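Our preliminary data section would be incomplete without showing what the modeling component actually yields. Below, a chain of 178 amino acids is followed by its predicted structure, encoded as tokens that our downstream tools consume directly.
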Amino acid sequence: MYTKLQNTEVLAAHIQGQLGLESPWKVGGEEYNCYREEAMLGKYHKALGELEQLVIMHLFELSKLAMSGTGYKLHQQISKAITQYNFQAGRLDPPQPPISWKDITQYSFLGEFNLLQHVQDDIQECMCIKPAVCEATTKFFKLCCAKEEITKLNVEMCCLQMAIHDEEREVSQTITNF
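Predicted structure:
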């Protein structure tokens, strides 16, 4: 066991020489702390990605089956992913807010799923993720759809009016011919 350690140290010294590194990183050093933060951020993003994937699967399952309370295995996976996410989110500087099962179950449509807001700091500052802006955008698009529906209904109304007029004329003509 000791010889493996010695061989590893010799190999590490050889690689340091080839890469031109002057001295190894020390615990608490600037390079060490920078790498440590990047590694923690990487683990956080991995936990976030897994949680997002499972929640999206859950939302598609709900939309496909149109019922809640299904997919016991998926619920277990989501619970584990929430635990892992909260652990990694708490280790960041500054810590990200934790997520609970209640937060996840409140999502009923993919459009309400805003976990991605925790991915990067610059995304969190965007206006588009603020709840009021999201709601206003949703209402705007519903209004656009309503206007389009009114246009279609106006066309259908003219067609229906013409069909009623034609039917009335046909009935009158049939009565007079009879």
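The longest helix spans residues 131-177. The chain has a mean pLDDT of 76. Preliminary results of this kind motivate Aim 1 of the renewal.
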